[in-house]
Amino acid sequence: MCPAAFNHEAQAKRQLTTSLCLYWTDCGNTNTMVMLNHLSVEDPDDGSPLLPEAAEAPTPTPVSHRQRVVTKTASKEFFVRSRENLIISVLLLIGCYSAILIPAYFPLDRVATPSDDYLIPKNLGLLNRSASLLSDPCRPRWCLDHLKPLSCSAGLLDIPVFVQQDRLWDLSPPLGLQGSEEHLALALASLPQPGLPPSLTREGSCRRCVVVGSGGVLHGSHLGSHIDQYDIIIRLNNAPVDGFERDAGSRTTIRLMYPEGAPHSANEYKKTAMVALVVFKSLDLDWLTSVITKQPLSFWSKMWFWREVVDDIPLTPESFKILHPEIIHKTGQVLQTYTMKQGNMLPTLGASAVVMALQLCDQISLAGFGYDMQHPGARLHYYEAIRMDAMKAQVVHDVSAEKRFLRDLVSASAVTDLTGAL
């Protein structure tokens, strides 16, 4: 090879080496790309290229343009996701309201079907004691005479039972009727006999009464036939008798309730003599007027009840009464001596019914009273499968104070506990 050819070949190899070094050096830099356009070196001898000609690379997109594209895409995705999140939030909100309002305005009937779990009484001793009590003659003024040793007895006597006239009230419902005077006047005008009926006065005969609570302890008691033998049978809210006659009896003299607690089944009123309304708000009096006069409440008024209320109760106007708020007030004052809570006590309807019975009856028995909070899995009500631990969620009533109060009544022999849970 001649020196000129050798020099030419050496020059070509140096050019090739330099180009390759530049290519691999800049490929390691993330911010720069070297494009090798038309990179070829011909051999001076045969004219063949030492490297194939590189394809022409596309011009890179400017950084500023890429940023605008990415920003536009991200913004579009953000609005799409925001719209999806809004739809999901609305659906969740509707679901939450449905979970609250559907049970309230379309309540599911959770009343359990009576079973044959207890073909024999679960406590024969209590059943025999109840039978023995009924076999004895009624003793006049038995309750009043046995109340005297109790320190709270003064607050439990001579309380009016039913409202019979409008007057000035110094407390709001349910402890009074302040602010509800107009509603009360309309309700009283629809009642033919607003006060205590002659059939419930103490004059003339001795009366034995039973207050039937809703407690699960009544389940399996087989006390139904005994309960039906009492002169006055007091029940609470929507506690059913239809289908539960074996344990709870079938007759009702007074059903103490507020509108949301009124039974929806007409069968529950077949053997009912009287319904006594417990007023918790002015609208409750409007509901009573509506039921008696058969003039339905407006849709707007119904919205203010915390669950669906009945439009019709198959009883005559003479069968409706308004519980005197003094019963609730005085019961709360007595319970205040059994609790550490401050302020006005709001008693349960059960405790209030016992105090009402003290005004009407000579002898009083209790059935289905006593929450067993030591056994959270025990049956809460005799007619449904809810368990005792559900009571932990309520904060309105002091059931422990009420149990101590009722125990004192039982210990003084003022009342008799038929189911033995007090």
TrEMBL record:
Listed GO CC annotations: Golgi membrane
Class of this enzyme: transferase
GO BP of this protein: lipid metabolic process
Coarse class of the protein's main subcellular location: Golgi
Function of the molecule: Transfers the sialyl group (N-acetyl-alpha-neuraminyl or NeuAc) from CMP-NeuAc to the non-reducing terminal galactose (Gal) of glycosphingolipids forming gangliosides (important molecules involved in the regulation of multiple cellular processes, including cell proliferation and differentiation, apoptosis, embryogenesis, development, and oncogenesis).
Listed Low complexity bias regions: 49-58
Originating species: Acanthochromis polyacanthus (spiny chromis)
The keyword Glycosyltransferase appears for this protein: yes
Membrane topology, from the record: Single-pass type II membrane protein
Keywords: Disulfide bond, Glycoprotein, Glycosyltransferase, Golgi apparatus, Lipid metabolism, Membrane, Signal-anchor, Transferase, Transmembrane, Transmembrane helix
Protein name per Swiss-Prot or TrEMBL: Lactosylceramide alpha-2,3-sialyltransferase
Subcellular locations according to the entry: Golgi apparatus membrane
Taxonomic superkingdom: Eukaryota
A Pfam family this chain is assigned to: Glyco_transf_29
Gene Ontology molecular function, alphabetical: exo-alpha-sialidase activity; lactosylceramide alpha-2,3-sialyltransferase activity
Record-linked InterPro entries: Glyco_trans_29, Glycosyltransferase_29, GT29-like_sf
